[in-house]
Write a structure and sequence with these properties.
This protein has 148 residues and is mainly beta. It has 2 domains: 22-83, SH3 type barrels; 87-146, SH3 type barrels, CATH 2.30.30. 11% of the residues lie in helices and 47% in strands. A 5-stranded antiparallel sheet has the order 6-5-4-1-7, with no helix packed on it. Strands 13-12-11-8-14 form a 5-stranded antiparallel sheet, with no helix packed on it. Strands 2-3 form a two-stranded antiparallel sheet. The chain is elongated and about 50 Å long.
Length: 148
């Protein structure tokens, strides 16, 4: 029969990991790559993902990475197809990118849903500094992007 102490230790073991949750790991796709249903070249190819697309790393397994895309789909990709450079995808229908991280700041540019932007600096105070492929930079609200 289990002692009250063992119940307390078990409860503590179940609670402690929640306090030490790991940060979500995002990466971007380095080159056009095939997403598979299993971690194998013999798996079913599902579709090709475009370079620069941000993905969330879920599991790493022997050269393969299980990833989640902005739509929530879970698939497998070869590990060497990803790079550490961070990108974000616009999730709002239209996002206004500002010249400084303030709601009233002048507009730098606008981006529509699914546009990919490079993350320039870590987010702070609800804003992320980003760069468009054409070189334009600015700040976007973190609530309007996926990949953070």
């Amino acid at each position: 029969m289990a002692s009250p102490l063992s119940h307390i230790l078990l409860a503590a073991a179940l609670v402690v990991p929640a306090g030490f949750a790991q940060a979500i790991d995002y990466r971007s796709v380095a080159q056009p790559s095939i997403l598979f249903d299993t971690p194998s070249d013999k798996g079913k190819p599902l579709f090709i993902i475009a370079p620069g697309t941000p993905v969330e790393v879920v599991v790493v397994l022997e050269g393969w990475i299980k990833v989640r895309d902005a739509g929530g789909a879970l698939t497998w990709i070869k590990g060497d197809a990803l790079k550490a450079q961070r990108t974000l995808m616009i999730s709002a229908p239209n996002a206004v990118i500002r010249k400084s991280p303030e709601a009233g700041a002048p507009v730098a540019f606008e981006a529509v849903k699914d546009v990919v932007l490079e993350l320039v600096a870590p987010p702070a105070a609800g804003w992320a500094q980003v760069r468009h492929a054409d070189g334009a930079t600015g700040y976007v609200r973190v609530t309007e992007v996926w990949g953070l």
